[in-house]
Amino acid sequence: MSIKKTLSVATVTLLSASLLAAPVSAQSPQQAHNVGYIAPESISYGIISPFWSETSSAVASIHISNRNITSGMSVVAQNSATRISGTMFLERNVNGSWTRVQSWAVSGTGVLNASRTATASAGGTYRTRFVVTVGSERIERTSASQRA
User: Fold this and answer.
1) To which H or E segment does residue 57 belong?
2) pLDDT tens digits, residue range 94-128?
3) Cβ–Cβ < 8 Å for 129, 89
4) What torsion do the CA atoms of 119, 121, 124, 126 make, to the nearest 10 degrees?
5) Residue boundaries of the structural domains of the chain
6) Using an 8 Å Cβ cutoff, are 70 and 62 in contact?
7) Is 38 left (phi over 0), alpha (psi -120 to 50) or beta?
8) Which H or E run includes 33?
């Protein structure tokens, strides 16, 4: 076998082995015997925090009660003087695709909390989505879906 082919095979083998490697972490003796133990400080409670330089937080929400929909959003800038502006959308799932039901322009400085109401069709599945600019950052967030 040529040296070039041998190096290629070795490289593929090493890369494959590295993909199979499992992450490890140090545990106290009390934690070591608990199979599946997750340290409380490592739990993120389902929130994956993206890296933003001008935005502290951004959350979309939806609540439906008796066919009354409340779409909500909250965006907090790192700096209280930062301009926040964009659009909040109410969307409905129609045959597997999300379609716009309503949209609202939103804006604020430093903190933007907005909520708008609409009426749901019985049996429809809805979500809130927004796209805003926080300073120079484009932020897009989507709520969980909820059935009317």
Assistant:
1) strand 55-65
2) 999 999 999 999 999 999 999 999 999 999 999 99
3) yes
4) -20
5) 55-147
6) yes
7) beta
8) none
Q: pLDDT digits over 74-93, tens only?
A: 999 999 999 999 999 999 99
**Rounded to whole angstroms, how far apart are CA atoms 93 and 101?**
10
Identity of the residue numbered 87: T
Does the global pTM surpass 0.90? Answer: no
d(CA 58, CA 133): 11
For 47, what's the count of Cα atoms within 13 Å in the CB-facing half-sphere?
Answer: 9
Please say whether the structural domain 55-147 has been given the CATH code 2.60.40.2420: yes
- The gap from C-alpha 16 to its chain's centroid, in whole angstroms, comes to 30
Helix (H, G, I), strand (E, B) or coil at 28: coil
d(CA 127, CA 59): 12
Query: How many CB atoms neighbour CB 148 within 10 A?
Result: 17
